Amino acid sequence: MSTKNFIYALHLADNALILAQRNAEWTGHGPVLEQDIAITNISLDLLGQGRNFYQYAALLYNDFSDKQKEDVNQFIPRLWMEYHRELQEDDLAFLRDEHQYLNLLITELPKGDWAKTVLRQFFFSAFQFYLYQQLQNNADQQLAAIAAKSIKEVAYHLRWSAEWVIRLGDGTEESNERIKNALADQWMFTGEMFIPEEYELVDVGALKNSWTKKVDDVFSEATLELPKQTWMQTGGKQGKHTENLGYLLAEMQYLQRAYPNATW
Amino acid sequence: MIFFKKYLYGDYGDKESPTGGGAIKSSANEWPLWEIFIRSKQGLDHKHVGSLHAVDAQMAIENARDVYTRRQEGVSIWVVESKYIHASNPDEAESFYEPANDKVYRHPTFYDLPDEIKHM
Question: What's the CATH code of the domain at A49?
């Protein structure tokens, strides 16, 4: 297996993990009980996807030749190197530094209010859905298998978040204002998904049409307009992140760094 | 003289609660309450599993999926708005159900079949 597969698995895993962490911030704070459960279920689904990808990445890495290990060294957690044992999923998830994460910028944006959360989920789940649709036919069997399993979860995330966008957009004056604010904040982070990176094993540029059509359909029902702005923020896929990721990682990684190699 | 009064779920109130005994009025800000029925994989009928709040039927089904099928409890969901469920009046339980107690002839096992009847 090439180093590309390893790096791509990391990117897919990071997307899932960082968004899972963001959605988990709603635990106990959801607007209504049933929606608290819904968003935390989504968080758990994403966490499961993340685990699958991290496990695969660790498996690949442990079988790499020395030359291959050297090639991906920039993504390997320094702390783990002192443990002198095989790379495991948790090491990749919890011990890397900010610039080693390859998640899309949209996943690390703050959870904000409910409108920001559902809109971000909608943008991301629509992307994941079309991505996994392609990925389940990929030459890499393991990635294809993970995608085939995960697409069922993502189909539900997409449905749930699309309906919420419609409810808020076509709801009261306040809800409409809130979702418009969310749109203004988040639109510039939606372009990154479709700009191909050399380690990606799926042609993400080709997904843009389906994604845009889906967003357009939902937005017209939600009485929202597609923004005209074309400038897009990028960098996540190369490890260049917004100011948000640092705080998120500080909270997420605290335990593993304070108690190295700890087990339950 | 009024013979029929349409009773709806929640009309009876909770007699044990301090303000119970009367109809429960839901506040204008509360989403409607829905009763959820789930059929398990091996089951033939939908069983009542609980209730939840949702704006409309679509959301009620999704909420039921999130809340009541997390541990593979079921493969089919029915939702009914609570206000459409009509229940029998517990005060009439005596006249409704006790007369059946001493009518044993209503059970098939009461009857002795002659031996000649092979297929019944």
Answer: 1.20.1260.10
Number of domains in chain A: 1
Identify whether A264 is part of a domain. Answer: no
Q: Compare CB distances from A38 to B53, B55, B66 and report the shortest one's residue.
A: B66
Chain B residues whose CB is inside 8 A of the A163 CB are: 58-59, 62
Nearest to A34 among B54, B58, B70 (CB): B54
pTM: 0.87
DSSP A188-206: GGSSGGGS--TT-SS-GGG
In-domain check, residue A96: yes
A218-245 pLDDT, tens digit per residue, is: 999 999 999 998 999 999 999 999 999 9
Structural domain range at position A125: 3-258
B74-92 pLDDT per residue, tens: 899 999 999 999 988 888 8
8 Å CB contact of B31 and A32: yes
Task: Set out the domains of chain B in order of their start, with CATH numbers.
Answer: 33-93 (3.10.20.520)
Q: What is the ipTM of this complex?
A: 0.80
Do the bridges between strand B33-39 and strand B76-81 make them parallel or antiparallel, or are there none, so unpaired? Answer: antiparallel
Provide the pLDDT for residue B53: 93
- Residues A105, A107, A110, A116, Cα dihedral to 10°: 110
Terminal C-alpha separation, chain A: 33
Q: Would residue A263 count as lying in a domain?
A: no
Cβ-defined contact of B63 to A41 (cutoff 8 Å):
no
Instruction: Name the residue facing A34 among B58, B67, B70 (closest C-beta).
Output: B67
